[in-house]
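Lecture notes, continued. The same structure-token format from the folding unit now serves as the input rather than the output. Read the line below as a description of shape only.
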């Protein structure tokens, strides 16, 4: 074999090795990029889910003498995300007893459901209403912040992508599997 042929074959071999190495590097970069993208998508979903919360509040009207006149207790749902949430379930302690609120949908916004106490027919909660209706009536909502007898213990919902989320008292939001 001539020197030119050996040089040509060496060039082909070097080109082949460099091509294989380039493909391997490109594949590794693509896998890393895909993993980064999936992590970013998951973070975005968690941020969106974290924009949804619930708490217990009491409704009152300020009397002319400055005293607060109570008008009932409410569950407040805040959906500050841009999408509706579905299959809402809230476990709440009301007056020291456990009650469950459910709703098939909660659009973006701030809503309340009046707690009607334990009823034999099982309707412990009123329907969701826009919180602005309470404010328009002149009444105010003040959250219960330290009482163990008035609090949300668990809040679950399904986001617009079909993922189920849970927020347990004193814990952050987490995605439920299944």
């Amino acid at each position: 074999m001539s020197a030119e042929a050996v040089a040509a074959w060496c060039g082909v071999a070097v080109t082949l090795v460099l091509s294989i190495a380039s493909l391997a590097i490109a594949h590794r970069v693509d896998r890393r990029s895909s993993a980064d993208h999936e992590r970013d998508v998951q973070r975005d979903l968690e941020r969106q889910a974290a924009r949804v919360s619930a708490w217990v509040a009491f409704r009152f009207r300020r009397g002319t003498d400055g005293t607060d006149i109570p008008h009932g207790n409410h569950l407040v749902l805040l959906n500050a995300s841009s999408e509706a949430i579905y299959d809402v379930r809230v476990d709440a302690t009301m007056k020291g007893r456990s009650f469950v609120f459910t709703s098939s949908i909660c659009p973006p916004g701030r809503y309340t459901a009046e707690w009607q106490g334990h009823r034999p027919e099982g309707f412990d909660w009123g329907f969701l209403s826009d919180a602005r209706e309470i404010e328009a009536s002149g009444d105010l909502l003040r959250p219960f912040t330290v009482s163990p007898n008035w609090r949300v213990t668990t809040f679950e919902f399904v986001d617009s992508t079909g993922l189920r989320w849970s927020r347990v008292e004193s814990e952050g939001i987490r995605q439920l599997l299944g």
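Point for the exam: The two ends are 66 Å apart (CA to CA).
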